[in-house]
């Protein structure tokens, strides 16, 4: 997702998503866009889960006509998924 047609940008964190949606977004207005902005800022403040912010961002991206490559996910396991890992876990 960039302002340059034919180029793709990978977003891996709520901060990157917020920067993208606030600074370089193809549309200026919309209910889904407003909800995504609110969700991302709430996530950065620690009031919303990264997963919820991710869903809102993806919906806004689709509304703006951006291509979104979503990985196929299996059924929920009950474990929370982190959108951006800070460092890999070491196995014992």
Write the layout of secondary structure elements.
Layout: H1 14-23, H2 31-44, H3 50-63
Helix pairs in contact: 1-2, 2-3
Walkthrough of the structure:
By secondary structure, this protein is mainly α. Helix content is 41%, strand content 0%. It is built from three helices and no strands. The radius of gyration is 14 Å and the shape is globular. It starts with 13 loop residues before the first helix and ends in a 29-residue tail after the last helix. The mean pLDDT is 80.
Give the number of helices.
3
- The percent range for helix content is 40-55%
The low-confidence parts are none
Alpha-beta content class:
mainly alpha
Defining key terms:
92 residues; mainly alpha; 3 helices
How would you sum up this structure in a few lines?
By secondary structure, the chain is an all-alpha fold.
């Amino acid at each position: 997702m960039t302002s340059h047609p034919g180029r793709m940008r990978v977003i891996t964190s709520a901060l990157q998503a917020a920067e993208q949606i606030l600074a370089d977004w193809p549309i200026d207005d919309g209910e889904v866009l407003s909800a995504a902005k609110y969700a991302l800022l709430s996530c950065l403040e620690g009031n919303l889960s990264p997963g919820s912010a991710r869903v809102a961002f993806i919906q806004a991206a689709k509304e703006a006509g951006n291509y979104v490559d979503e990985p196929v996910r299996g059924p929920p396991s009950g474990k929370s998924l982190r959108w951006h890992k800070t460092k890999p876990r070491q196995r014992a």
